[in-house]
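Reopening closed ticket. The problem is back. First fold of the pair:
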Amino acid sequence: MEKQNYDIIATDNGSSIKMWTQGVPVEEAAKQQLANTARMPFIYKHIAVMPDVHLGKGSTIGSVIPTLGAIIPAAVGVDIGCGMMAAKTTLSASDLPDNLGPLRSAIERAIPHGMTPKTRGYRGRDEGSWNTPPAPVDAAWAQLKDEFDVICQKTPKLSKTNNYRHLGTLGGGNHFIEVCLDETGAVWFMLHSGSRGVGNAIGSHFIELAKKDMRTHFINLPDDDLAYLEEGTSHYQDYVEAVGWAQRFARSNREVMMHNLIAAVRTIITKPFETHVEAVNCHHNYVQRERHFGKDVLITRKGAVSARPGELGIIPGSMGAKSFIVRGKGNEESFNSCSHGAGRTMSRNEAKRRFNADDQALATAGVECRKDASVVDEIPMAYKDIDAVMHAQRDLVEVVHTLKQVVCVKG
């Protein structure tokens, strides 16, 4: 009999937690958060935990939450549809310029990134949005606008969000754009972003509605952020419509960025090249209806990627670490899922306390990227060992390509 590569934790309500975390650290606070979620009465079968698991808001990042008849908006989160896109090109390492600085600068000019710090009291245009959106943004927005107008009729305040001008922009935090080389020396373009300001507004709005519903019906929860929307209610249906739209916005956001990334690279590398030789565009913060163990259920992946049989996905490391293009093995016990990255071992504030800009420069040697103090929270040492994370999920995915970044743009 094949050895079981996950651990099982039983809960007091009959459900369980299955953890693909052998050989990687899991903080006690994350285990408690998982136990709180598993106690919810609508959990189906068990919660599947990926090796990049760590403490999150409401529900644990790196978890797959199957539910019947209810959705937990905070489990989906506020970066709805956040995910990855990667495209292999016909370029090779020898086609890249010796000085990668101009390439990085061209990408930074082509794609708005970062955000205006709240501490500056800035009231003008968000620095991470477009001033005048280019044609690809207009074309993508035309496919999203009509449905968004319907959503805004139900929730008017969403119309005041930065939606159209955020389409095709990166954002901040752990979002990034990279130029990578695979094991053969082929050049890949890879990026990480989600639904930006409008997704945040949608998520925040429905999280508060769910909490209000809990108070109205005197429902006590182990954590307020486990507030849920019950199927059949108006709030539930409105959320399903809004979250579905936000996930489409996020996918389109990555496609527009990839279009502009390719155009930016062509201004520096004049040799003709093709892209999308192999391409992947996958969410890792989302909810959708799937069939598992003979039943139609809602699957919320909070920091997890779909890994159905033969399905391609992306598992990034961190700045200075390897990333992987993977193929799903279709492990039903994990609800056909895998990790969405390496996973943090410490908070952003803790990383800034422990490390400085010199540490960041050393950890990202050989990568053309920012090395200043403001990105120290993304230092590779703040993340789990990506090799250990990959080994822990060897029965969930197989590695197709191993990527190493040479250029990294952060917000």
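Second fold of the pair, where the issue appears:
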Amino acid sequence: MASPTNPPWSLAVPALGIATLGATWGRDLPSWLAALVGVVLVAAVIAAVHHAEMVAARVGEPFGTLTLAIAVTVIEVALILTLMLTTPDEAETLARDTAFAAVMVILAGVVGACLLVGTLKHHAQDFKASGASGALSALTVLVVLTLVLPRFTRSADDGAYTTAQLLVMSAITLALYGVFVFVQTSRHRTYFVPDAPEDPDDGADDPAHAQPSLRTTQASLGLLVACLVSVVGLAKVLSPTLKDIVSTVGAPASTVGVVIAVLVLAPETLAAVRAAAANRLQTSMNLALGSGLASIGLTIPTIAVASLILDIPLELGLTAPEIVLLILAVFVSGMTVQRGRVTVLQGAIHLSVFGAFLFLAFVP
């Protein structure tokens, strides 16, 4: 099998993103130009994940999905910090809204889409429950400590941590994520590595099975950095327009977090769905749960430290309806990973939860 190479569009998009950033930085954008910048931003995100996939294909599983998760988390953190600095009046809850939306998109949307697409094509699919259940348990702890518990503590205002609480919980979060990465990549790596397909030709044409050359991987690494720079800059350029759109449609301010989460996770969702369609559900679960862990385990501590340095208030505690939805998503996910075998029913259940989340995000 020939080594995969970067298609021309993946080489052009980073340059286009940097050029667009240079042409629009510090300008008030008319509607048509804002739409064009939005298209370039989406293309830059897709290109960033493509190049992360190339690097991931070189290093193999489970390091590949870990690379993707960290790349997506860097984009997420950059977008949140950029919008926090440009819209300080709404910065207090932006990290919470984005982290909650990311978890719901992953547990209900990404997992649901993978299960539905995979089982519609292959009837029933298997993955290793030992790895998925451990990842889900770690994700549950991280979510509760960072997004639920702040609503019930008594030392600070409702929904917030004190500085000491924020630092301690951030340290616990980072430590637990570090343990998960150690388990995934070293101690119990086999729990996360897909079994060899029964049919040797199953997925043989999937480029994810081919390893790019060292030169291609090095080029993708450099282009990935260029994509991340353009994503951060273009998000800052578009932030006033995004705020105006949310206000115009009458949606709550928390909708911005949903938009960020969907934008950042969309390319990775496509990668996970492709893997499920190719009967590699283990890879899909690694992508989904790994992204959720990185989204909470890395994003919240980074934003917490930034909020202390920049002296920006940070409200992390979810509201009651959001806590109910989160509990539902975690419970359903726990039942799904319990046996390590799924059918189309599990996909429909997850997507039902995702549909309820999306509707209530716009009509709370």
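Update: turned out to be a display glitch only; the data is intact. The first strand starts at residue 125 and ends at 126. Confidence is low (pLDDT under 50) at residues 198-208. Please close again.
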